[in-house]
Specification:
Layout: H1 4-9, H2 11-20, H3 26-59, H4 64-99, E1 120-125, H5 138-144, E2 148-149, H6 150-156, E3 163-164, H7 167-185, E4 189-191, E5 196-198, H8 199-204, E6 217-218, E7 223-225, H9 230-235, E8 241-243, E9 249-258, E10 276-286, H10 291-309, E11 313-317, E12 329-337, E13 342-351, H11 355-360, E14 363-365, E15 373-374, E16 376-384, H12 385-395, E17 403-404, E18 418-419
Parallel strand pairs: 4-9, 8-14
Antiparallel strand pairs: 1-11, 2-3, 5-7, 6-7, 9-10, 10-16, 11-12, 12-13, 13-16, 14-15, 17-18
The structure holds one RNA strand.
RNA sequence: GGAGAGAUGCCCGAGAGGCCGAAGGGGCACGAUUGGAAAUCGUGUGUACCGCUAAUACCGGUACCGAGGGUUCGAAUCCCUCUCUCUCCGCCA
């Protein structure tokens, strides 16, 4: 959520921003209109309340006829006040609905563009794997080695769910531990939050209301299945006012993530896009100064995972049109999958400036006696598991259809070197 | 699931229709004292919003005592609904 003052100060800058992001600027005009009406109503209400407060003090000292008259007069003022209060509440609700639809302002270094092709490749690591045989995709590899069972996932949960089996399940567990251990060494505190979150939490990080149809909802208890650990982890500090010395705070969390992927049907084959997947997440709470520098180190921390796994990958700086709603700057990490023949987004690292902090009310006090300010939040995937697994399987296959286990995972798999 | 207790400012805690944005204490900040510190004394110290501003500085104003409604000229205080926390009982990996 943007600061209303930022919008009021320079609406035209916001208009440009919306166009760069390929949003309609109707929301801006709607906001300006509602905001003006809201301010006028607030002002009148304040004036009348002042009148009432003064009259109340007088009435307390009056008696008899004078009192009766004053009370009668105030009755009409009270009626007008409650009318205005209703109007203010109405306008405020409408204005807030509109402001929640205005995305974050991109950092000046973000390229302007309207499609995937405008994203800028800022770094490439390793070479795309070449084979002297026809490589299989992960679906064939998984089924032939009996380490992924798509049919049984469908049987117990439905389309878009899968089952890892044997060495597949073991490698998944190894990956989780490898990533968490690496992030621990990088200075992140591991947390293991609830897998379900309440409404305040999904509002706090911005999934609600915009993405509400993409989340699983337990109606009876009004709980939501975690769509990304960003939600529970960021909201750990909801409504907190931190001391300056508390910052920065770095958290890492492994958590299953759930996506309904409502209305999407393409790409649902295999493990590329599924309803439930494991993910190790990185979340930072930092001082506003230097938050974009923190994004660079967060990115590097995520890249370390891929380097360690010896996977070819590239880093994209997303353009204005391709960035997430709440982000001011985003890098995507794409790992190559030679069997599928595509680049897979395995991580997305973003700096949200104060956009999320304002919604979740995460603040800090620069000095004990000073006014509190919003912190800046960042997060990134310390890699989404299924796609990482796909990339490992497809890159590390040999002619016999076996999979070489990356060296860094072997300690987590009793030294095993091959899946065969 | 059953029974009870509670929710007030950064923290603890009073308050029982107008004198309450809220006593008192703690913490913190500033000042005095000191060679320096502790102790002591004094002053100050919430958030959001509106207006005025170059200003997130003053100043003027409004709202906020878990949330939402109601009664009243006037509600932290009375009434209703809800949420959350704690304790005990039951159930349970």
């Amino acid at each position: 959520m943007l600061d209303v003052n930022v919008i009021r100060e320079d609406p035209e800058a916001i208009r440009t921003m919306l166009r760069n992001r390929t949003y309609s600027d109707d929301v801006l005009d709607k906001f300006l209109e509602l905001d003006q009406a809201w301010r006028a109503a607030v002002e009148e209400g304040n004036r009348l309340r002042k009148q009432r407060n003064e009259a109340s003090l007088r009435i307390a000292k009056l008696n008899g006829k004078d009192k009766a008259e004053a009370v009668a007069e105030m009755k009409s003022v009270a009626a007008r006040i409650s009318e205005l209060e209703a109007r203010v509440a109405e306008l405020e609700a409408q204005r807030d609905d509109v402001i929640l639809l205005i995305p974050n302002i991109p950092h000046p270094t973000v390229p302007v563009g309207d499609c995937y092709e405008k994203n800028r490749v800022v770094m490439e690591h390793g070479k795309v794997t070449k084979f002297d045989f026809q490589p299989k995709d992960h679906i064939a590899l998984g089924e032939d080695l009996d380490i992924i069972d798509f049919q049984r996932g469908v049987k117990v949960a439905g389309s878009g769910f899968f089952v890892l089996k044997g060495d597949g399940a073991r490698m998944e567990r190894a990956l989780i531990n490898y990533m968490l251990d690496m992030h621990h060494r990088q200075g992140y505190t591991e947390v293991f939050p609830p897998v379900v979150v309440n409404r305040a939490a999904v509002i706090g990080t911005g999934q609600y209301p915009k993405m509400k149809d993409d989340m699983y909802w337990c109606e009876r208890d009004d709980l939501w299945l975690n769509p990304t650990a960003e939600v529970p982890v960021t909201n750990l500090l909801q409504d907190d006012i931190l001391a300056k010395e508390d910052l920065p705070i770095y958290y890492t969390a492994y958590l299953p993530s759930f996506r309904r992927e409502a209305g999407r049907h393409a790409e649902m084959k295999g493990m590329i896009r599924v309803h439930e997947f494991n993910k190790v997440e990185l979340v930072k709470f930092v001082l506003p100064d230097g938050s974009f520098q923190e994004l660079e180190t967060l990115l590097n921390d995520a890249q370390d995972v891929l380097r360690g796994l010896e996977l070819p990958f590239r880093t994209l700086l997303l353009c204005t049109g391709d960035m997430g709603f709440a982000s001011a700057k985003t890098y995507d990490l794409e790992s190559h999958a030679p069997g599928t023949g595509s680049w897979l987004e395995v991580s997305s690292c973003s700096c949200f400036t104060d956009f999320q902090a304002r919604r979740a009310r995460v603040k800090y006090r620069p000095e004990p006696h000073l006014k509190s300010e919003f912190v800046h939040t960042l997060n990134g995937s310390g890699l989404a598991l299924p796609r990482t697994m796909v990339s490992i399987m497809e890159n590390n296959q040999d002619r016999q259809g076996r999979i070489r286990i990356p060296e860094v995972l072997r300690p987590y798999m009793q030294g095993q070197e091959l899946i065969e």
